[in-house]
Batch of 4 targets.
Target 1
Amino acid sequence: MFKHIVVGFDGSEHSENALRIACDIAAKYGAEVHVSHTPKHETVSFALGAVAGYHVATTQPKPEDIKAATEKIFAQASTVASACGNTNIVTHQGNGDPAHDTLKCADDCGADLIVTGRRGLGNLGALMMGSTSQHIAHHAKCACMTVM
């Protein structure tokens, strides 16, 4: 039923829950899990927030900050997936809008399912459901699951 599952991942609690559920489904169906992450200012800030001298509110991330934050986010995703018994996730880094990048990842790998967290680390544009997960649900060419 499911062969390729894409997970939108930004390091938030909801995205970790999405990855756990995707790994559970993947284990049942023998599916491959693809983790899509698009570094945005707030996710770089989240990932590097503990770095001394990094001022979240006043500093735009440098390319090396973005690279370090993305590596940290993918390491976090790998840790979560490994804890669920999935030691072989495929990672995809976007460079634009997280919703568009996740949809492109899904199209590129022929995804049967996209799993996203209800709220991530993005702006507060949507109160009930995050704007990224909402956009994905409206534009995906495959099944979508939004989790808390």
Note: The first strand starts at residue 4 and ends at 8.
Target 2
Amino acid sequence: MSERIAVIGDRALATGFHLAGIYHVYTTEKGREFEDKLKEVINDPQFGIVIVNENYLPGIDWRLKKKIDNLAHPVVVGVADISGESAEGENLGELIKKALGFDVSKK
């Protein structure tokens, strides 16, 4: 079974990834709705990557934040919103390293 990509965020993020061919796209508002959908998706073994609005992450419950920070699978990737400004996203290379256990950019 191949792992799937899920996207959770505002309408602009969801639409962009849906147009790019991602099928598991969930439009949510910041807050409880986002947290509930994020919990559901990270507990679903079919997903290997979860892409979320980066600006949604600072407001989530600290326990969920800690769980995400310690997850190796699925990898949760925060992307900048439509403004393009990044708040606290991790470097993509670091996320891949965390998921795979080694640095793919090293020879």
Note: The chain has one domain: 4-100.
Target 3
Amino acid sequence: MSVNYEPITEALFNALLDKEVAADQELYSLCLQAKQDLDKKKPENLVYTKLSKNLSWYLMVHEYKMPKSATAVAQAIQKVEQTYRGQAATALMLGNAFFAGLPH
């Protein structure tokens, strides 16, 4: 399954350019770390899944308040994260199913 990461990357870059995000050191650091990981050619699905988790935590800690540009990043990431987690869960289930059939 091929995922188009361009809209997510564009949303991330827009968030990094947002003055509201830049004023919040914690939020800016989360977004900047994701950009740096992408620049290092780390797998996009892993980078965005990690960022999604971090943004979710940020939202909880900050009483569900976040600048609109950062919210746009979180929304754009949701589908990628769900796809990645689904693939990981499927791989684990198949691995367990095949392992269970092997003699111990």
Note: Residues 68-100 form the longest helix (33 residues).
Target 4
Amino acid sequence: MRYIFHPEALREYEETALYYGEVSAALAEAFIKSMEKGIEQILDFPGAWQLVEEDVRRHLLHRFPFGIYYTIEEDYIMIVAVTHMSRNPGYWKNRLKAR
């Protein structure tokens, strides 16, 4: 199965990686690896993660306070948001209309 990012989710991912890169290159690399591992786990077991809203699931990253919010579509996984867990919950819901 393949995956795609909602454009705003991709922006969140990139901005977070850049932020960690300003702190430390090693920290940015660890964040990216954590994201890659999280996406790989989602692709391997798409239905295994917690439902948070109708058909939206959340995978929590290890070591970083971020969640990957995604939906399981017919032919792919749609990553709807990459969000810090202290961020306003549900801010990403309007993105579901674009599917």
Note: The domain at 2-98 is CATH 3.30.2310.20 (YaeB-like fold).
